[in-house]
Amino acid sequence: MNMITNHLPTKELQALDAAHHIHPFTAGAELAKKGARVITGARGVYLTDSDGNRILDAMAGLWCVNIGYGRDEIAEVAARQMRELPYYNTFFQTTHVPAIALAKKLAELVPGDLNHVFYAGSGSEANDTNIRLVRHYWAARGKPEKKVIISRKNAYHGSTVAAASLGGMAAMHAQGGLPIPDIHHIDEPNWYAQGGDQSPDAFGLERARQLERAIDELGEDRVAAFIAEPIQGAGGVIIPPDSYWPEIQRICDEREILLIADEVICGFGRTGNWFGSDTFSIRPDIMTIAKGLSSGYAPIGGSMVSDAVAQVIAEAGDFNHGYTYSGHPVSAAVALENLRILEEEAIIDTVRDDIAPYLREKWLQLADHPMVGEARIVGMVGSVALSPDKANRAPFATPPGTIGTICRDRCFANNLVMRHVGDRMIISPPLVLTRDDVDTLIERATRSIDEAYEQVKRKGLFTPA
Ligand code: PXG
Fold this sequence. Notes:
The chain has helices at residues 10-20, 28-34, 60-63, 72-84, 97-109, 123-140, 161-166, 170-173, 191-194, 200-218, 244-254, 276-279, 307-314, 329-344, 347-365, 402-413, 435-458; strands at residues 39-43, 46-49, 54-57, 116-120, 148-152, 183-186, 223-228, 258-262, 286-289, 301-305, 372-378, 381-386, 416-417, 419-421, 424-427.
């Protein structure tokens, strides 16, 4: 493997990192004290750090390395493309072969008639595009007042000003004066935390019908679109009740609004099918893609757009929007090669038919643990809710995230990347996990939850709110 092995000692790297590097979603001073973990290489589903530890990456980087690390074919394609045409833009009536080939491939893979792509460099940028696209679309149809986009609390749609506004993360809105105007948030379908005594299906219907009520209250003539992740990822892997998506689809069919499925996490095999929209029978007008599109090997995202919407946009004159790196040739070539690997190696079929069912069986057994309130999983994305009182799905008395952090730290110590969101533990591993890898993942996760449980009890924190 081509790794930089003669790097500085870990302590020196950490000091330089603390001196000059501002980390995303991180308390800088706190991290500077303990030092960031330095990742130096990766192969398959394992990371290597600067101290030589081998860490099972059950988050596929940041939900993106679907084909696993270290695929030389991708490096070859990137190098070839860099030599042939490292950059050209797709503005000003030009195009290039990688952008064309990827657009055609995406039109084949993405369900329904979402046959058109507007390229972006990331999921955040793609969602920025979506806001401008849907408003431009309605204006072109003579309805410029249709501007409001309905989203959900605890949704994650990215970190730019517009995407973070679209998202429903209270902690993000609390910084920098968000959200921007004309974004409206309804409640999330989080039965475990908010469902009370209702059945999951009754709760799912109630939450879906909030969309109908919001359209009525805002006025259908003012609402442009509804956006949602098929499964809320960064929100804690919140899998909606079965009743939720069919009801949302019914409402979107009946009302004159566009449906945007944000598939940045769910896309490209994560849920056991190519798209979360396949898994949940969603028929979006626009789909946000990124992450698994290139398995994270190069930055790229995009908005997949239906024939009907694309036609209106095409006939409405200039769409005054675009990024320097829209359809970047190297990223597009890398994405194409990633899709070839996913398809030719039947990775998603293997997930659906073998690995996901195997992982599911073991993951659901975590619910037997005395500190686990529920275990849920769809395809290769799952979560467990930590709880001091399973019967009542009660949260801990400590501030949200306290117990999750203890558990996450045990995972770190046990060479497993399993994240926490509040007091939920989440996984989203590479799709190329083998059965042996699943066993290792479950063994390390169980050990980490056990150790966290002992610590929580010892500190007297095993008490409900
Ligand atoms: N939509 C969804 C559903 C996402 O999960 C984005 C859009 C934005 O994509 P970019 O490429 O701009 O990051 C995301 C990204 C986390 C975490 O803590 C999740 C994401 C990004 C950063 C952190 O789980 N998801």
